[in-house]
Amino acid sequence: MNTQNGQAPHFILAEAPQAEPIRTRTLVQLRWIAIGGQMATVIVAWTMGIGFAKGPVLLLIAAALAMNVWLYLNPRRRTSPRGAVGQLTFDLIQISALVALTGGLSNPFALLILAPVTVAATALNARQTVMLGLVTVAMISFAGLLAVPLYDSQGNLLRLAPVLARGHWLALVIGVAFFAGYAHRVTAELAATSNALFATQMALAREQRLQHLGGVIAAAAHEMGTPLATIKLIAAELADELADRPDLREDAVSLRQSADRCATILRSMGRAGKDDLHLRAAPLHAVLEDAASPHADRGPQVEILAEGPSIRRDPGVIHALRNLIQNAVDFAHSRVVIEGRRTAGQLIVTIRDDGPGYPAALLARIGDPYLTGRKGGAQREGYEGMGLGLFIAKTLLERSGARLSFTNGGPGAIVTVRWPLDRIAADGRAALGSNPHQET
Asked: Is the dihedral of CA 354, 355, 356, 362 positive or negative?
């Protein structure tokens, strides 16, 4: 777990909830809809006097019905990828056989052969989707070559002209590639965004836990100052009164020294803030120092130039700024400059480095999850290249009301964060004073 550079740790995605590819209940429900549509089509064609192989068609529909009944009587808690592929392959074969028995490619419902591979593209990996896509192309060809012709109520043959049949076959094959590829790409992007948001939530939760722990420590340091001062005073008086009892005086001196040690420890624990209110608000320079502190000794010089009001010491904002500073340090040659200033109604923080900057082709996509946007930099120790740092920073800062812009400054990258002042400024309440001074 990387706790020093502010980046999301490796275990975050490993612990993200992994759902089954597709629930059996969903496949069963889709199959019920398909069975209902198939039966309705058979009934309508029958009433219209369309001639087709009614017995085999009803047998295929009964097979789908039997599959659903069997799955209902043998419920499984989870569907494995192999099981999902098996069920979708069954559906593909059943639909293709129905199309072949009802006119083949001249059947206007032949487009439904694409349904199983489209579902696979949204739920299964690329290899399984490609395999099912190849099977789909084979079944489309099978339905076209071995089609049983349809006849209208007057006994006329219903079929497409050969050129139209070949065009329909080609359109379906192209549809397999297009629909499956498009659905798989969209699903993959949604999954990547979902995982990245989960990583953001985990990072923010960790930062909040640390913040709450700091509040408890600072409050304890403040509240225990008075009793420690009392203990130290009484121990000093006892040591003076026991001057004729060296054995007891030594115990009193030891008690006083222990009280001094406790006071020193509490002062160091409460240095960041003497009370819980101080932890919720701090000067802009102090917040930027807090965000930059894990990266101060990683190589490049980190310079902070900030004059501004006290702002809310929000854990999400600190973590986001830390990620932005980490990205600058990772790719800087020798220097990172963090500037903060207040303008009319706005608070602006700018982070710039002297590294290679962002590739121009990727500037518009900076902040997308899993985007590796910078090459050729130092990539110093602690750099993990997960592509989540900027996404997490952008998400957290936008939640706080900020707007981000990413540019190149020749040389180096520049990140500008702008808040409306009323969204980030502290409420102006003063913190409590220092702990009571302990007289010796």
From this structure: negative
Q: What is d(CA 362, CA 84) in angstroms, rounded to the nearest whole number?
A: 37
- C-alpha closest to that of 309 among 290, 326, 286: 286
pTM as predicted: 0.50
Is the model's pLDDT at 6 over the cut of 90? Answer: no
CA count, 13 A, side-chain hemisphere, 279: 23
* CA pair distance 45, 208, nearest whole angstrom: 65
Q: Helix 162-223 vs helix 225-241: angle between axes, to the nearest 10 degrees? A: 30
pLDDT in tens, 233-253: 788 888 778 777 887 888 888
Evaluate the omega torsion of the peptide bond into residue 411 and state whether it is cis, within 30 degrees of 0.
Answer: yes
Structural tokens at position 152: 């209208």
Amino acid at 240: D
- The rounded percent of the chain whose pLDDT value lies above 70 is 76
pLDDT score of 24 more than 60 = yes
Asked if residue 281 lies in contact with residue 429, where contact means CB atoms within 8 angstroms, the answer is: yes
- How far apart CA 270 and CA 364 sit, in angstroms, is 43
